[in-house]
Design goal:
The chain is mainly alpha-helical. It has 13 helices and eight strands. The strands form three sheets. A three-stranded antiparallel sheet has the order 2-1-3. The longest helix is centred in the last third of the chain and has 25 residues, at 207-231. The chain is elongated.
């Protein structure tokens, strides 16, 4: 053991050696182990991949139910889910339009009961019959989502899927779990180009761009209305202030000012009608004829004899 009187250790045995850089073989083994894991497990939930399986713009594979749970958590808790999104999905998934369902040909394991009991899904190329995984480079087509071996896509006529006959472009042939830096750069360039064209990974129109346009149009329309309302703001009553309306749920300042002005005018009109209809209030005030009679004295007022009086 050392230092117990039985042996005298040297400095070389006591001092730790510096870590050596892994060689090419070790790097490949580590890379294959990592690919084997992500070919059989969801990149988000770390659970085994079970159809339906989806992929994002970077080529990672996810369980569709895990993506749905992630999007629901994003709507409920924005701050916490954004941190998780940056760590696991790199911010590439904002809606279901940012993923494409990948259609794999699944190997039947009914004869082999030991394989049937395992949860690992074996995916095959429908053209070559090879098993897709770390040893075979695989791609999928956008927007149909059918997966093939890369060698089969090279030999098939470009522009039409062999499974569904749907048209596609060479730029929409995406590698699954890319390894090389050139493939990753191509995927990033493709996504940036689609975003400049207001499109998502699935080649669908981005929904958030339309909402931004509507929001800007509403703010432009509300700005002149808010300016006129602010100029007439001091004439409003205490119940028609913008602070009361904003606390009631109206956040737009221009809309709140116009609503406050309309409520104040309605309140004044209601008070005037109430005073005119109240006869008790009328009796408190005398008319102009009554005032003229009071101002005249008994000499100029005149004398009238009642019709029923005796003469």
């Amino acid at each position: 053991m050392g230092n117990d009187g039985g042996s005298i250790p040297t400095r070389r045995e006591l001092v730790k050696e510096a870590a050596k850089d892994p060689n090419t073989t070790q790097v490949k083994e580590t890379q294959i182990e990592k690919l084997h894991y992500y070919w059989s497990h969801c990149a988000w939930s770390q659970k085994p991949l079970i159809p339906p399986i989806v992929s994002d713009s970077t080529g990672n594979l996810y369980n569709k139910d895990a993506v749905l749970e992630f999007l629901l958590e994003t709507n409920q808790n924005e701050h916490g889910s954004d941190i998780a999104s940056n760590e696991r999905t790199a911010g590439t998934i904002q809606s279901l339009k940012d993923v494409v369902e990948v259609h794999f040909k699944i190997e039947d394991n009914e004869e082999d009961h030991s394989k049937a009991q395992s949860k690992e899904v074996r995916m095959l190329c429908p053209v070559t019959g090879k098993r897709l995984g770390p040893g075979v480079k695989a791609v999928y087509l956008v927007p149909c989502g059918h997966a093939f071996a890369e060698t089969a896509v090279r030999e098939m006529p470009m522009g039409q899927c062999l499974e569904c006959n749907e048209a596609y472009s060479p730029n929409n042939v995406l590698p699954i779990l890319p390894v090389s830096a050139a493939e990753k750069d191509r995927l990033r360039d493709r996504l940036s180009k689609l975003q400049s064209e207001d499109l998502t990974h699935s080649l669908k129109r981005a929904a958030r761009s339309g909402k931004k346009r509507k929001k800007t149009q509403l703010t432009k329309e509300a700005e002149p209305a808010g300016a006129t309302a602010e100029s007439t703001g001091p004439e409003l009553g205490p119940k028609g202030t913008t602070a009361d309306l904003s606390s009631a749920g109206i956040k737009n300042q221009g809309t709140a000012s116009l609503t406050a002005k309309a409520l104040a005018e309605q309140d004044n009109h209601y008070k005037r009608r109430k005073m005119e209809a109240n006869e008790n209030l009328k009796s408190l005030f005398s008319s102009s004829d009554g005032m003229a009679g009071k101002r005249s004295d008994f000499m100029t007022r005149g004398f009238s004899i009642p019709a029923g009086a005796k003469r």
